[in-house]
């Protein structure tokens, strides 16, 4: 609890909410012992006194009542209704939620049904019904809001109870003979308490608004009681003569509601561990550039790898990356990477998580996440891409440069049919009509080996398996026959047999279309099967770069050797003789980082 | 999908039935005496009995409910206990003001909330984004009735550009006048609803902006804005549509306050007057209509969600 309070104090708007609510409580408390004037006595000689005259700080109304005194006393009504409504909401909510979660099935089903119906009765409507039957009172607003909010609380709490009950520690407690009530008290209640507190602080905001509206409509507490809503009601007829008088109670209601809302929001943030202390880039201790030299004594020689010497293709390069540096704020994530790729060439970009390989590949088509900046030079067909406007980059993406992503499960739009997604680049770049695009999508679906293509182009992404979705991803990427395909860990999320099929498909199609390939992976075994050359990245730099066979046979870097050792340890020996053959793949890619704990993992994924 | 719609329709009917029982119970079972309310404090026991008999209050409750339900199903919401006017006819008449009021402010709220919410999400780190967020937070806190009073003060009292009170006696026969007298009520009601919607549009858009498929769309050749427009907004619309369903209830309730503020002769003013007169038959009919609208909108939202998202269609829930 004290942790929540501390989080609240650090939360700027939460602090404001706390202050506003404290002012309300203080005003109500002060009004019991002192008010500038008696709020209910009328003084016809002192009608409509302007603010700051005769000791009336906020002036007086048509009956000569002091406005500040009325506001202070009105705080009591607001606070009373808010607290009462919250108590009723908590009682109704917990009882209904408990019944729904714990009672025999037929009771719980009807409670859930009842909650759904009662939610359709708005609080103010119920309050007016109660006012029609009983006449207005403190209880009218409080019980109407209490019941209306109570069913919301019940709904949220029931879901929370079900969630908590399914967790391992509660199951364990039940299994070890803890009774239902004991389990509820010891394990479930403490866990739902934060959700409950947030809900109840929002109930107070609703209660304040409803009380004000109800009093304004004339159905609040009857006369000696003072309320802000009734002040508005009383003063509306005189609004033309004294517009200021409706301002004060309005501000009071608005600030109170704002206070409860801010407090509720801040409590939600404070009690949600996912949101606590969230900040960009807080994951990596120690900056990348500083530590880059530590575990890598031969760094100097690595930087001296003559890129041009190994990479120089005979023809003009398709892609030239020179001194690419990617930063987030002052932190350097990719540090001076240079690469070059000829048409039809196949490069494996390898490194552990956080090495900057994914960022490098995303930078080429201009798809870096927001907040990251790239400098240096990226040229395709000799044309500089860095610094180009989004519209021009979009014209190249999917047309000259295409991408296949790591997560086939999330890379497709869940609301678009498969065929339409396959045809998207064609419609964008080739301006195909809908019918032509449909035909083309069908042809591509068939080409990437999707089963029952006529049917599958009409299907939705969630109906496909991971491997099928990655085939769709490949079909999309190759639809416009791009010159360069960047595949960012395209097989990592798939299981072993599917991995092999997808690799073979990529290999076959890129060869057939003569597409150059950058294959990004952490898995040496995978890269050996598709690449002609490999570049090894570590901590934002390329540490080794050369033809596949050379690097595998005689790695110069300690880091590359350790990657190789890790690959061999999983019973696989790369065969430099046949780089294009699909080798047996280890049952599962080594998910534990092979070398050192990775840095800046957040930024790359 | 058809199976779902049928099942949801059955659920709607069950809910409507339960709502009618609740409404009836709320007004007839609570310890208040309608007869005493009508007869007044001077009425003696014989007069009260006569009133009760006239209203059918001396019959068994179940029988009273059955009669009422049968009438409601045939479209008759009963007659005023005070002057015998038909509730159905009067509500139909008042809906000609309340309907345009609610729908117009809903449209206005959406027209403001969607573009501003998307903008606040796109620029969430900049001053524009945080400014819009803060403004919406304040908009939620501002009581509708106070905003209305301020608008009345500024537009109707200070510079008299727009009518602040009432509705033309000729109604929609005087369309220009009618529209003008709805402008301030529309703004008043749209402001707080728009602020709530804006927050949901913003958070839904922020969610979508982080999704992989938006990056895929850009990799296919869409611009950032194009990807958001063609792929993002439809994905973001799911949560916004559910909130919209909940907000319809808030709009109907808000209309009660706004009609009173601007002296509009709509269903809200009718309800306020009937509560004051303790005309329980009318209140009962009005409450039932509001709740039925809320439940029907809930049904429409559930079906709409499934039209938007194919994944929901298959779970059958």
Structure in words:
The complex is a heterodimer of chains A (605) and B (317). Chain A has two domains: 2-276, Orthogonal Bundle (MetI-like fold); 344-366 and 389-603, Rossmann fold. The two termini of chain A are 34 Å apart. Chain A has a six-stranded mixed β-sheet with strand order 6-7-8-3-9-10, sandwiched between helices. Residues 275-314 and 571-605 of chain A have low confidence and may be disordered. In chain A, 53% of the residues lie in helices and 11% in strands. Chain A is built from 25 helices and ten strands. Chain B is an all-alpha fold. Chain B has one domain (87-315): MetI-like fold (Orthogonal Bundle), CATH 1.10.3720.10. Helices cover 79% and strands 0% of the residues of chain B. Chain B is built from 13 helices and no strands. The termini of chain B are close together. Chains A and B meet through helix 4, helix 5, helix 8, helix 10 and helix 15 of A and helix 1, helix 6, helix 7, helix 9 and helix 10 of B. Chain A: GO terms for molecular function: ATP binding; ATP hydrolysis activity. Chain A: Residues 319-564 form the ABC transporter domain. Chain A: Residues 590-605 have a biased composition (Low complexity).
Instruction: Give the helix/strand class of chain A.
Output: alpha/beta
Give start-end ranges of low-pLDDT stretches of chain B. none
Largest interface: A-B, 76 and 70 residues
Low-confidence stretches of chain A: 275-314, 571-605
Q: What's the CATH class label of the largest domain in chain A?
A: Mainly Alpha
Q: Indicate the overall shape of chain B.
A: globular
- Structure annotation, total helices of chain A: 25
Radius of gyration of chain A: 34 Å
Q: Quickly count the domains of chain A.
A: 2
CATH-defined fold name of the largest domain in chain A: MetI-like fold
Strand count of chain B: 0
CATH topology of chain B: MetI-like fold
Main pleated-sheet profile of chain B: none
Distance between the first and last residues' Cα of chain B: 10 Å
CATH architecture of chain B: Orthogonal Bundle
Under CATH at level 1, the class of chain B stands as Mainly Alpha
Strand content of chain B: under 5%
Organism (chain B): Yinghuangia soli
Domain ABC transmembrane type-1 (chain B): 95-299
Subcellular location (chain B): Cell membrane
Keywords (chain B): Cell membrane, Membrane, Transmembrane, Transmembrane helix, Transport
């Amino acid at each position: 609890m004290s942790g929540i309070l501390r989080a609240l104090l650090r939360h700027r708007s939460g602090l404001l909410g706390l202050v506003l609510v404290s002012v309300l409580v203080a005003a109500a408390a002060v009004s019991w012992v002192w008010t500038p004037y008696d709020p209910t006595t009328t003084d016809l000689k002192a009608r409509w006194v302007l603010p700051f005259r005769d000791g009336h700080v906020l002036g007086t109304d048509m009956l000569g009542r002091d406005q500040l005194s009325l506001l202070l006393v009105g705080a009591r009504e607001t606070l009373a209704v808010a607290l009462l409504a919250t108590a009723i909401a908590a009682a109704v909510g917990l009882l209904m939620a408990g019944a729904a979660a714990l009672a025999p099935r037929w009771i719980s089903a009807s409670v859930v049904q009842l909650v759904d119906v009662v939610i359709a009765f708005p609080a103010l409507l119920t309050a007016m019904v109660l006012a029609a039957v009983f006449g207005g009172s403190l209880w009218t607003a409080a019980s109407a809001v209490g019941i209306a909010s109570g069913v919301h609380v019940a709904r949220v709490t029931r879901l929370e109870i079900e969630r908590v009950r399914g967790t391992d520690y509660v199951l364990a407690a039940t299994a070890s003979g803890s009774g239902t009530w004991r389990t509820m008290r010891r394990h479930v209640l403490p866990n739902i308490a934060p959700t409950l507190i947030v809900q109840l602080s929002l109930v107070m905001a609703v209660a304040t608004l409803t009380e004000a509206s109800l009093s304004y409509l004339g159905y609040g507490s009857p006369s000696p009681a003072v309320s802000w809503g009734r002040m508005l009601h009383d003063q509306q007829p005189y609004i033309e003569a004294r517009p200021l008088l409706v301002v004060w109670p309005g501000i009071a209601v608005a600030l109170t509601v704002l206070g409860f809302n801010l407090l509720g929001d801040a409590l939600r943030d404070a009690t949600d561990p996912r949101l606590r202390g969230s900040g960009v880039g807080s994951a990596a201790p120690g900056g990348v550039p500083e530590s880059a030299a530590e575990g890598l004594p031969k760094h100097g020689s690595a930087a001296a790898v003559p890129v041009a010497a190994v990479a120089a293709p005979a023809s003009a390069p398709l892609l030239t990356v020179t001194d690419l540096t990617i930063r987030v704020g002052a932190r350097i994530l990719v540090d001076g990477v240079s690469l070059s790729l000829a048409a039809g060439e196949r490069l494996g970009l390898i490194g552990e998580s956080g090495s900057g390989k994914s960022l490098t590949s995303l930078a080429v088509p201009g798809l870096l996440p927001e907040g990251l900046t790239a400098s240096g030079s990226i040229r395709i067909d000799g044309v500089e891409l860095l610094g180009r406007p989004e519209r021009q980059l979009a014209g190249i993406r999917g047309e000259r440069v295409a991408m296949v992503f790591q997560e086939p499960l999330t890379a497709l739009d869940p609301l678009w049919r498969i065929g339409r997604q396959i045809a998207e680049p064609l419609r964008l770049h080739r301006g195909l009509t809908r019918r032509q695009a449909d035909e083309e999508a069908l042809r591509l679906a068939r080409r990437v080996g999707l089963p029952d293509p006529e049917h599958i182009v009409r299907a939705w992404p969630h109906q496909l398996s991971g491997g099928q979705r990655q085939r769709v991803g490949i079909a999309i990427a190759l639809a416009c026959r791009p010159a360069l395909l960047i595949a960012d860990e395209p097989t990592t999320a798939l299981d072993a047999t599917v991995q092999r099929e997808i690799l073979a498909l990529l290999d076959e199609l890129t060869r057939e279309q003569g597409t150059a390939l950058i294959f990004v992976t952490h898995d040496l075994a995978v890269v050996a099967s598709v690449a002609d050359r490999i570049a090894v990245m570590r901590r934002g730099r390329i540490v080794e770069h050369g033809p596949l066979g050379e690097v595998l046979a005689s790695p110069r870097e300690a880091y590359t050797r350790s990657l190789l050792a890790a690959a061999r340890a999983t019973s696989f020996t790369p065969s430099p003789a046949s780089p294009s053959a699909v080798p047996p793949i280890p049952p599962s890619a080594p998910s534990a980082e092979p070398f050192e704990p990775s840095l800046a993992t957040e930024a790359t994924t | 999908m058809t199976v779902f719609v049928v099942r949801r329709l059955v659920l709607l009917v069950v809910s409507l039935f339960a709502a009618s029982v609740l409404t009836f119970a709320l007004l007839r079972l609570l310890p208040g005496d309608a007869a005493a309310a009508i007869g007044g404090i001077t009425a003696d026991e014989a007069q009260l009995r006569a009133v009760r008999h006239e209203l059918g209050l001396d019959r068994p409750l179940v029988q009273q409910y059955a009669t009422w339900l049968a009438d409601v199903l045939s479209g008759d919401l009963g007659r005023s206990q005070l002057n015998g006017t038909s509730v159905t006819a009067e509500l139909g008449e008042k809906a000609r003001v309340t309907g345009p009021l609610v729908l117009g402010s809903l449209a206005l709220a959406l027209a403001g909330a969607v573009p501003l919410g998307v903008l606040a999400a796109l620029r969430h780190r900049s001053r524009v984004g945080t400014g819009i967020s803060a403004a919406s937070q304040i908009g939620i806190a501002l009581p509708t009735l106070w905003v209305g009073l301020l608008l009345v003060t500024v537009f109707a009292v200070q510079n008299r550009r727009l009518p602040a009170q009432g509705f033309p006696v000729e109604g929609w026969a005087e369309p220009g006048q009618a529209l003008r007298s709805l402008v301030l009520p529309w703004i008043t009601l749209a402001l707080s609803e728009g602020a709530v919607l804006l927050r949901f549009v913003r958070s839904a858009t922020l969610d979508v902006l982080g999704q992989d498929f938006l990056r895929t769309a850009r990799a296919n050749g869409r611009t950032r804005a194009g990807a958001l427009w063609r792929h993002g907004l439809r994905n973001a619309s799911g949560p916004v549509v559910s909130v919209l369903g909940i907000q319809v209830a808030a709009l109907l309730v808000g209309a009660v306050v706004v009609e009173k503020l601007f002296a509009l002769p709509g269903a809200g003013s009718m309800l306020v007057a009937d509560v004051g007169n303790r005309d329980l038959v009318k209140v009962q009919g009005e409450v039932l209509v509001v709740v039925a609208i809320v439940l029907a909108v809930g049904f429409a939202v559930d079906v709409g969600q499934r039209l938007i998202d194919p994944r929901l269609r298959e779970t059958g829930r």
